[in-house]
Write a structure and sequence with these properties.
The complex is a heterodimer of chains A (416) and B (89). Chain A is α/β, with parallel strands linked by helices and 416 residues long. Chain A has helices at residues 5-13, 41-54, 89-100, 102-106, 124-139, 149-155, 182-195, 239-244, 308-321, 370-383, 397-400; strands at residues 31-37, 59-62, 78-79, 117-121, 145-148, 170-174, 178-179, 199-201, 206-212, 215-221, 224-233, 252-264, 272-275, 280-284, 289-300, 330-341, 347-350, 356-360. In chain A, 51% of the residues are buried. With 89 residues, chain B is mostly beta strands. Chain B has one domain (2-88): Folate-binding superfamily (Folate-binding fold, 2-Layer Sandwich), CATH 3.30.2270.10. Chain B is built from one helix and six strands, in the order βββαβββ. The longest helix of chain B has 10 residues, at 34-43. Chain B is globular, with a radius of gyration of 15 Å. In chain B, 15% of the residues are buried. The chains are: A alpha/beta (416), B mainly beta (89).
């Protein structure tokens, strides 16, 4: 069903009784060309672009829970491409370009809101670092503006500019950055893939990967064996566990990352804002709640819940930047599992097992990458070679010493 | 989370710094396949969902390195020991 003003009015006149489900409840077939493990944003986007860009429609997406129950619904919905390093900037900028056309592409309202992402800075050294990053972005054709204190004050008059310890000296703004509605991203890609013949199989957990003579044969699942010419892993958070079924050991630790939503407020924060003297970032949802987060908890975890010290740390960051939030109440907070890699950058690559492909290690930045990760992973699966903008995200870069370490923290996942 | 330090007793996990999985052995740089062994030592991890022996440093306490047995699915602590027992060098 194509969504348009005509379908909306037509359905309204008929009491909204004619809407059909956005995707079928598919039963697993015995064999597919491609089986994608993980029905999150990345897996669904991969299926969509496989079908749309490469004509590969004999595809199943298997998801252990319900669609969108993992990280695609557990992030803080921020989209941006304000990276520094050459391996990263073209990829994230391609993702941003795909975000900019995504509603038209999917015929689905994913509520992309280019409200701007502002990183405030608090010292001369930090200004230099941000100016350098802005220059790197502009050299790659990405929009970036270095704002002085007065320009930031015009945007955020209620921020604490007079703080003795963390005075706000200015900010780096990416005007094209912003937010998108994360659930709709999963649903939109699922609907688009389903319309092109992809089977989306929910409540179907992969329990094993069958390999014979070094080549992938298919996946064992809770709903039986599903044969496949190619198996593609797209299950960040649990990548190590699933890859271990194929005998792989990866440069990844699973960590827990918490996010928060406050009670609803009148419009207060127009942009995405990040604090430069701690780890805190915030935007305001269309419902009025502030959506915010900070650091990962910092220890290996598969628990999907974190601990109070990080809650305290995030709130301290919030109040250092915006003292007027002191009486704001938090409605809910939750944890998501993130693949923290040894250099803080992702992996989109073939694995040592023939016809087994890997998309993972997204650290805490997988949501913004969803369209480009799907685009590049589909390219890799269809053509057996990396897409040019994801060519740096190789699995063997650690052995080659060619890591992409934005933070410069070394092989310590909880520092990225 | 609270960690039971052998010297200081049960203390808030905030007093500790996390290093990651314990039990990794630095390879012999002169051994066969030393390059491969070092790549595995520095970068590759088992990352289990379940019990994990990991290194914590009691930064704001006795400054001992500890091996903590913790379940990564529940955060339950099963036991703590000194990473370098007293009788070692």
């Amino acid at each position: 069903m194509h969504y348009s003003i005509l379908s909306l009015v037509g359905q309204a006149l008929r009491g909204n009784r004619g809407w059909t489900p956005a995707w079928r409840r598919a039963e697993p077939k015995s064999r597919y060309n491609v089986v994608i493990v993980g029905g999150g944003g990345h897996g669904l986007a991969t299926a969509y672009y496989l079908a749309k860009e490469h004509g590969v429609t004999d595809v199943a997406v298997v998801e252990k829970g319900y669609l969108g129950s993992g990280n695609v619904g557990r992030n803080t919905t921020i989209i941006r491409s304000n990276y520094l390093l050459p391996g990263n900037v073209p990829f994230y900028e391609w993702s941003m370009k795909l975000w900019e056309g995504l509603e038209r592409e999917l015929n689905f309202n994913v509520m992309v809101s280019q409200r701007g992402v502002l990183n405030v800075f608090h010292s001369d050294a930090q200004r230099n670092a941000f100016a350098r990053r802005g220059n790197a972005m502009r050299l790659h054709g990405v929009d970036a503006e270095l704002l002085d204190r007065d320009q930031v004050r015009a945007m955020l008059p209620f921020a604490d500019f007079e703080s003795a310890r963390f005075p706000i000296l200015g900010g780096l703004l990416q005007p094209r950055g912003g937010t998108a509605r994360h659930d709709a991203v999963a649903w939109g890609y699922a609907r688009g893939a389903d319309m092109r013949g992809v089977d989306i199989i929910e409540n179907c957990e992969v329990t094993g990967i069958r390999i014979a003579d070094g080549r992938t044969q298919g996946v064992e699942t809770t709903r039986g064996f599903i044969g496949a010419d190619k198996v593609a892993l797209s299950c960040a958070g649990n990548t190590s566990r699933v890859a271990a079924m194929a005998g792989l050991r990866l440069p990844i630790e699973s960590h827990v990352m918490q996010a928060f939503v406050s009670e609803g407020l009148k419009p207060l924060i127009d942009n995405v804002v990040t604090f430069g003297a701690g780890h805190f970032y915030v935007s305001q949802s269309d419902k009025g709640g502030l959506v915010f987060g900070g650091d990962i908890d910092g220890y290996n975890s598969y628990a999907q819940r974190g601990n109070l010290p990080v809650v305290e740390d995030v709130v301290e960051g919030a109040l250092a930047l915006f003292p007027n939030l002191a009486r704001l109440r938090v409605l809910r907070n939750w944890g998501g599992l993130v693949d923290m890699s040894m250099d803080g950058s992702p992996i989109i690559d073939k694995t040592p097992v023939d016809k087994l492909y890997l998309n993972g290690a997204w650290n805490y930045g997988g949501f913004k990458a969803t369209p480009a990760a799907g685009w590049c992973f589909a390219h890799l699966i269809a053509n057996d070679e990396p897409h040019p903008v994801a060519a740096a995200y190789r699995l063997d870069r650690f052995a080659r010493g060619d890591v992409i370490d934005e933070r410069g923290a070394g092989a310590q996942p909880n520092l990225h | 989370m609270r960690i039971k330090c052998p010297y200081c007793g049960e203390r808030d996990a905030q007093e500790f710094s996390y290093r990651g999985a314990g039990g990794l052995q630095r390879p012999d740089p002169d051994g066969a396949n030393a390059q491969e062994a070092f790549v595995a030592y520095v970068y590759l991890r088992d990352n289990p969902a379940g019990p994990l022996a990991e290194l914590w440093y009691h930064r704001a306490g006795c400054r001992s390195w500890l091996v903590v047995e913790r379940d990564t699915r529940t955060h339950a602590m099963a036991g703590t020991a000194l990473a370098a027992p007293l009788d070692s060098d």
